[in-house]
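User: Hi! I'm working on a homework problem where we have to compare a predicted structure to a textbook description. Could you give me the structure for the chain below?
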Amino acid sequence: MVKSGFNLHPQKICILLTATINPKNVIFVKRNDPIIRENDYIDSLKKWIEKTSYSIVFCENSGYNIDQIIRIAEMYKLREIEILQFNGQNFPAEFGKGYGELLIIKYALQHSNLIKDSDYIIKISGRYFIKNIGKIARGLSYNKDIYIMADLRRNLTWADCRVFAFKPSFFFDYLSKFQGLVNDSNGFYLEHAVVRAVLRAISDGHKWLPLPSKPIVVGYSGTSDTPIRVSKIRWLAGKIAHRLKNYLNRK
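Assistant: Happy to help. Predicted structure tokens:
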């Protein structure tokens, strides 16, 4: 009997939307008005609910009033939506938003019932909507051998943390081990932690793949306070690069 990573039963996927409505004094965040950020999260959550069918966990760490967000989730009683919140900004501001995001991921994995019932988590910055999320999710749906799916760049020194997918154990066994190094003021970002965790997981025999399609991101950059725009030529170039990476990884 030939064993294969292909699985006749689709893997259960949960979308984790990380959120910090009030970033307070966290460094390197230009889009820092809580009202504007709240509207970003509301717009994004509506898109995720109305345009996809995945389980959704929205986890917020600043303690900001989220009554509007809860009301939106309650309007869709047939959907699997979980709203979590905790006070997770009790760390030095110079550690940066990436450190806070690690705490959000950890809290969600420890407290979400939807995540506990899921095979894979797709972590997405909560103010963003990924227009081609279906292509990314399909890359996970029937392949139980994939451990982590993320785009690695800059000679394997940087990971795109806007969206990446992983089995829950990846966080506790690998990514969390680098939490103490994350410090934006020292130039060690979440992107560095994720790529190191991925490389260590690979060295232990786990399977990594790049995202099957270049993410089409809708939203505003929190760092620069500018809309995320990619020219058609640049997007096509990225798409070709993604196809090449996936081809080489299947060889």
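For your comparison, note the following. The radius of gyration is 17 Å. The chain has eight helices and eleven strands. Good luck with the assignment!
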